[in-house]
Automatic annotation (TrEMBL):
Every Heparin-sulfate lyase N-terminal domain range: 47-279
Predominant location: periplasm
Protein name: Heparin-sulfate lyase N-terminal domain-containing protein
Record carries keyword Repeat: no
Domain Heparinase II/III-like C-terminal: start-end pairs: 317-496
Pfam families according to UniProt: Hepar_II_III_C, Hepar_II_III_N
Native organism: Nonomuraea composti
InterPro entries (UniProt xref): Chondroitin_lyas, Hepar_II_III_C, Hepar_II_III_N
Alphabetic keyword roster: Lyase, Periplasm, Signal
Keyword Transport among UniProt keywords: no
Compartments in which it is found: Periplasm
Length: 534
């Protein structure tokens, strides 16, 4: 058994007999930079402009003051592209430069040393950095590299640093398993296997829903679980049934969270440009309710023109979630209609914190009441039909009960939403439309938006009386959306007047729907439903 600070490995591969290794092959490499970019000394990370490394690398560099850039820079995966290129081509210059970079990093970033930035040894850079260092270890037999991997393993196995129930924890387990298997440390490999089972059970529920409150992370977690299971088998270990079952169940969740345009619905820390690019299969149901706090529904599978909606409820905000409870999104007739504020970045900026707030989502607010962060909400009633579904949700995020009922009609597309609050309190609602939709009229409780010939109408009622006085904001405090990383676009947000009861009807595809409301029944272009929705 090896001591923590001492590792031994197989002899380094001769340069003229390069073989491809399991540690170096796979999908762990980033899309950018390429090996040639790194050889030229220019690296582009997280979509930001290329940074010139130079021959002597400044390991404290943070050219964009961007936390994600710093973490990816310190992960050294960009260095790993050189080792992979060496395996693929046999050209020694790639391995030499990779070794030079890694040795310089190890010398300049000793754990706990004065001058080493604290984020260098945070859990995620540590776990992600393990892969390129393990890859390098297949071709470089050096004490500095073995000692560094031992330090990584010591931190990865520290229970106080372990991120249980989170994708970071999965990455920590993959990394510790990798070091343990590479150097015959069964204690490390066994610990990683035990922890992984517990983390997966917390991170992915029995329905297959990701518990991190941002569906796009389900794609990442699914991919990492495939890596974890492959590595366990390669290490001669049996994959626990619960890990395999929940990884499989994730595919259905990803499918339901993917809109008809092929992109995932941007809920929580998820941008509108996330495309799963994986085979999920076609679920049996068009509508799915997840106890983790999601309703996903569509008209039909495999049709880009299908209507699609999402509704949020469930446990209070955590991990990658936003304060979006009772919020909805709506996609119809091949386009986004109602959108969330989106995900901008993980930077500690006022705008980032605004994107987390209720004001960045399509939610009801209780007038004159203070919002209580991280409040859970409940789905209390449902009504399923092939051409129509309805749901009722409630919480006490403002100290009193606020209740929202949502009805979605298919074929003749429309969404209707009823909002109320207890104790005689008034409610107001926020509706964020896609940036391409511009306001063409706003009068008497009817707001019409258009993108060329396409029109969408918003109508609002209180006890069947049409309610006017909607305010439209584009830019300013509310009128923003971040469809992609680090982007910020002005968009139209409709804010309702305050009322004890607000019924909002969204009708895509027209600027002149025929609407009537009487006797507790609403009719829109021949489609009738209860004014109470459910």
């Amino acid at each position: 058994m090896l001591a923590t600070g001492t590792l031994t490995g197989a002899p380094a591969q001769a340069a003229d007999k390069v073989t491809r290794t399991a540690e170096c092959q796979g999908d762990w490499l980033p899309g950018t930079p390429t090996a040639e970019d790194v050889m030229k000394g220019e690296i582009s990370l997280v979509g930001l402009p290329a940074y010139k490394l130079g021959k002597s690398i400044d390991w404290a560099a943070s050219p964009y003051r961007n936390r994600s850039w710093e973490f990816v820079f310190q992960s050294l995966r960009w260095m790993g592209t050189l080792v992979v290129e060496y395996e693929n081509t046999g050209e020694r210059r790639y391995l030499d430069r990779a070794t030079e970079i890694a040795e310089d990093w190890v010398a300049g970033n000793k754990y706990g040393a004065k001058g080493t930035p604290s984020y260098v040894w945070k859990d995620h850079p540590v776990s992600l950095r393990t892969q390129p260092l393990l890859c390098l270890s297949r071709h470089v037999d050096a004490s500095w590299l073995k000692d560094s991997l031992a330090t990584h393993a010591k931190l990865l196995s520290n229970p106080s640093l372990y991120k249980k129930g989170h994708n970071h924890g999965i990455d920590q387990d993959i990394a510790l398993m990798g070091i343990g298997c590479r150097y015959g440390r069964k204690d490390w490999a066994s610990l990683a296997s035990r922890r992984l089972t517990g983390t997966v059970k917390l991170d992915v529920d029995a329905q297959g829903a990701l518990m991190e409150q941002a569906p796009r992370y389900a794609v990442y977690v699914y991919g990492r679980l495939q890596v974890a299971m492959t590595n366990m088998k390669a290490c001669g270990r049996k994959v626990p049934g619960e890990i395999a079952e929940r990884a499989e169940a994730l595919k259905d969740f990803i499918a339901h969270a993917t809109m008809p345009n092929g992109f995932m619905v941007p809920i929580g820390d998820g941008s509108a440009e996330t495309e799963p690019k994986m085979e999920t299969g076609t679920p049996k149901q068009e509508v799915k309710t997840y106890r983790a706090g999601y309703v996903f529904g569509r008209t039909a599978w495999g049709k880009p023109e299908s209507a699609y909606y999402s509704i949020r409820f469930g446990p209070g905000m955590k991990f990658h979630g936003h304060e979006d409870h009772l919020g909805v999104t709506y996609y119809a007739q091949g386009r986004d209609i109602l959108m969330d504020g989106g995900f901008h970045s993980y930077e500690k900026s006022s705008y980032r914190y605004w994107t987390l707030s209720p004001e960045a989502h399509n939610v009801p607010t209780v007038v004159g009441a203070k919002f209580r962060p991280r409040t859970a909400s409940k789905l209390v009633d449902t009504s399923y039909g092939k051409d129509r579904q309805a749901f009722k949700l409630t919480d006490k995020a403002y100290g009193v009960s606020r209740t929202r009922s949502v009805l979605v009609n298919h074929g003749e597309d429309l969404m209707a939403v009823l909002d109320t609050a207890s104790g005689g309190k008034k409610v107001s609602t926020i509706w964020r439309f896609a940036p391409s939709l511009k306001v063409v009229s706003n009068s008497g409780g009817k707001v019409v938006l258009a993108d060329g010939k396409f029109k969408v109408t918003l109508l609002q009622f209180s006890s069947c009386d049409q309610v006017g006085g909607q305010k439209v904001e584009r830019g300013g405090r509310l009128g923003w959306v971040s469809p992609t990383y680090l982007s910020k676009q002005a968009t139209n947000v409709v804010v309702s007047p305050a009322a004890k009861s607000l019924l909002t009807v969204i009708v895509p595809g027209t600027d002149s729907p025929k609407v009537s409301c009487s006797g507790g029944k609403v009719t829109v272009d021949g489609v009738s439903f209860s004014a109470g929705l459910i």
